[in-house]
Design brief:
Length: 207
């Protein structure tokens, strides 16, 4: 069986590595969830090793950020921007106030809250763009503490699925080995029978 086609990853995609057999060539084998035809689909294939980082390395800066900022620390979990408002049925409550602008945020970005007294809308900024502040929906971000817990649970579940994947892979290999042995035994038996069937008859004894 082939290793599969390379998977095209997006920034901050979650990846479950199920095999490191190709790591010496710069690839992992694994799976990720991607939206295909409007549905989340589990996609398996090759993943460029230098395009991903381990979960603990990914979570470390989040943990440091949470320790410094406390309750003001958020992580974006859904894309939001001015363009999002134009194409989705979301009520922008500040249309009558010109200087209030939506903040562009993307999944995985760290966000610091400046003001959350406006109910469903939060005022803040993305850490890598601290000079640009704006508003975004409360439900589009998650407290860093909860996000870390969610990622750790996902990592533990992915580890269990990896173990299950390897176990299933071993079972399938054992099954293939048994089937190959059975086919080989049947082939030998058939060859043996064919040998006797093809053996020329002895010439008739002269009268």
């Amino acid at each position: 069986e082939g290793a599969g086609a390379p998977i095209t990853l997006r920034m901050n995609d979650l990846v479950c590595v199920t095999s490191e057999d190709f790591v010496d060539r710069g690839w992992f084998y694994g799976e990720t969830l991607q939206e295909i035809d409007g549905e989340e689909t589990r996609v398996k294939g090759l993943i460029k090793a230098d395009a991903v980082s381990r979960m603990e390395d990914f979570l470390l800066p989040l943990q440091q950020f949470e320790r410094i900022k406390g309750a003001a620390a958020r992580v974006c979990i859904f894309q939001f921007s001015d363009d999002y408002l134009k194409h989705h049925d979301l009520d922008w409550p500040f249309s009558h106030i010109l200087h209030r602008r939506p903040l562009t945020i993307t999944p995985g970005q760290l966000v610091e809250v400046v003001d959350e007294s406006l109910g469903e809308w939060i005022y803040g900024f993305a850490i890598e763009n601290a000079d640009q502040m704006g508003y975004f929906p409360r439900e589009f971000v998650m407290p860093v503490t909860q996000y870390i817990e969610m990622m750790e649970c996902w990592g533990n579940d992915a580890e269990r699925r990896t173990v299950n994947w390897h176990a299933e892979d071993r079972r399938r290999k054992q099954q293939r080995d048994v089937e190959e042995q059975q086919q080989e035994a049947r082939a030998k038996k058939k060859s043996f029978l064919s040998f006797f069937a093809r053996k020329p008859k002895a010439p008739p004894v002269p009268a």
